[in-house]
Amino acid sequence: MENQDVVITGMGFVLPGAVGNDEVWRKLEAGVSQLSRLPDGIVGGQGETGQCRAGGRVWEFDHREHIPDLPDTFAKRYSREILMALSAVEQAWSDAGLRDYQSELCPERTGVIGSSSRGPVEWWSQTSSGSAVDAACPPVEIDHAVFASLAGSPATLSAIRLGARGTVTTLSNACVGGHQAIGFASQLLETGNADVMVLVGHETPFVPEMLQIYSSPTAGVLSRSDGDPATTIKPYDRNRDGFALGEGAVAMVLETREHASRRKREPYARVCSTVSLNEAGHATRMDLSGRFTADMILRATDAAGFAPGDIDYICGHGTATRYNDLAESRAMRLVYGDRVDRWPPLGSIKPVFGHLLGASGLLNCAATVQMMCHQRLAPTINCVDVDPECDHDHVQDGARSTRVERAMSLSFAIGSQSSAVTLEAA
Predict the structure, then answer these.
(1) Which SMART domains match (predicted)?
(2) Is residue 315 part of a domain?
(3) Does one domain contain both 99 and 220?
């Protein structure tokens, strides 16, 4: 049997300052950062010198607007992370038109794959300390915390709500987990082992321990800026000094094109290829020559049946760390040559919502799909003084209307991991 086309038919979001497709796109297109100043309870006392004080928090969120049928007795047993994930999944499921089609689905051919870098650290932190980190984190009843304490609960509880009896699992592989979830789901769909797969990335990293870990000299990836939170993350800029964390949930529905056609559903985009590799090099730093990333880009385009020049836009990992941005730019030069005017734009959306870790790959892909749908590139905000070693098009001058038919998303992670996903407008 020939491999089947895999398409994206639904998306859902619970992000800092933006819930749902339309609101997320408005923030991305306008380039409005949703980062804010973190309270002392999260940073730790008055905050240590040099510790990042900015982050993308979901301050106002009511799960009842998205899953009103969830009994309060259940909701009290679920963490904020679970409720955000269930809400994003419900949005994506409805966006795909599957709520009205659910009785026609084969439960055994419907699955859910989650992605989270750290799992429920917010719950574990407030449980070990005996109090909530701040007002945004209501306590979960300890007697019923078996769900709140498990990293896989968002996927399994989503499966129960959707009646999905196929493959249900959760990946915990840092920042490449979202891409790998797309790859895993695509393999099941392409080979005829599933009809519909729901993906959900979720992260709630705002606890003192996480900020200490990422601010440590060994990691050194969080920005030390103490100025306006909105300008903290500066991808590809000469003055970049790291990222700020973000929280929330991103969901996506994948299905075979045949299945979508059968129910007369027009897809957003096609997943053309996924590549996930390990550099087997430095545990915390990318290959700075760019050769490994360049090879991955070429593998991804080859697997998709594209030439590198067919790519209209690359949604970079763009963390605003010294090495990540430099390695991405060097890889671009190896793939496309010295004529930077012939390179596709390389952008980053992290300054808008922060770095969502295990959900970041899914967010990158979902944002890229939105750009395809609108035929408009979201800007890379805060890229004001472009680093001479990253001196190419980052869409730094505001949103741009242009042809976006084929695109790529890049992700990199601690542990020498790299991944790429190629997409094509449907």
Answers:
(1) PKS_KS
(2) yes
(3) yes
- Tell whether the model's pLDDT for residue 421 goes beyond 90: yes
In a domain, 1, yes or no: no
User: What does the pLDDT look like over 202-250, one tens digit per residue?
Assistant: 999 999 889 888 887 777 799 998 899 999 999 999 999 999 999 999 9
Q: Give the separation between CA 36 and CA 59, rounded to whole angstroms.
A: 10
Among candidate residues 245, 269, 293, the one where a domain is terminated: 269
Same domain, 409 and 352: yes
Q: Which of 310, 212, 280, 306 is nearest to 418 (CA)?
A: 280
Tokens linked to 273: 């290829």
> In this structure, which amino acid lies at residue 344?
P
Nearest to 350 by CA among 120, 56, 133, 139: 56
Same domain, 253 and 279: no
Backbone angles phi, psi at 37, to 5 degrees: -80, 130
Chain segment 39-76, per-residue pLDDT in tens: 887 775 444 556 789 999 999 899 999 999 999 989 98
Predicted pLDDT of residue 265? 97
Beta strand 110-115 with 54-55: parallel, antiparallel or unpaired? Answer: unpaired
pLDDT band at 259; cut points 50, 70, 90: very high
Half-sphere exposure of 24 (CA within 13 A, CB side): 28
Q: Are 343 and 393 in contact (CB under 8 A)?
A: yes
User: Which tens digits make up the pLDDT trace of 91-146?
Assistant: 999 999 999 999 999 999 999 999 999 989 998 888 877 655 555 566 556 666 78
Give the model's pLDDT for residue 395: 98
For residues 31 and 165, membership in a common domain is answered with yes
Q: Are residues 201 and 321 in the same domain?
A: no
Domain that holds residue 348: 272-425
CB burial of 115-152 (b: ≥16 within 10 Å; e: otherwise) equals bbbbbbbbbbbbbeeeebbbebbeebeeeebebbebbb
State how many domains the chain has. 2
